[in-house]
Design a protein that fits this description.
4 strands, 4-stranded parallel sheet, globular
Length: 118
């Protein structure tokens, strides 16, 4: 007669709080000198070797690569490298920023991120 009724216990975070959390995570990475700005991440073809060389030159083992838009060549170049992830600015989130050792971000992506978070 009075059986269980399904409930939703989920909580959706307000947009302002999500934006502030992302700003806080990015500023923590900036204070720890864990953000590397690169002029461009354009590759003529997918090359894991070129990306691995970039990461070893910077000295990062677990990088998060951020491009201005979703770049398929960069994604293909990073997906065979363990613990590396490539995202566009639109996909940038707090979990990935905190979970990775450093951010490798393109100049045009910095401008887009500032524009989106301002």
């Amino acid at each position: 007669m009075f059986g269980p009724t399904p409930r939703k216990y989920g909580y959706s975070m307000p947009k302002k709080v999500r934006r502030l959390a992302l700003l806080s995570a990015l500023s923590a990475r900036a204070q720890g000198d864990a953000i590397f700005v690169v002029d461009s991440l354009e590759l003529p073809e997918p090359s894991t070797k070129a990306m691995a060389a970039l990461f070893s030159a910077i000295g990062v083992e677990k990088p998060l690569v951020v491009t201005a838009t979703r770049d398929e060549i960069v994604e293909k170049s990073t997906r065979n490298i363990p613990n590396a992830l490539a995202l566009g600015v639109a996909g940038l989130n707090v979990y990935d920023v905190v979970n990775h050792q450093a951010l490798v971000i393109a100049r045009e992506a910095v401008a887009k991120a500032e524009e989106a978070l301002a």
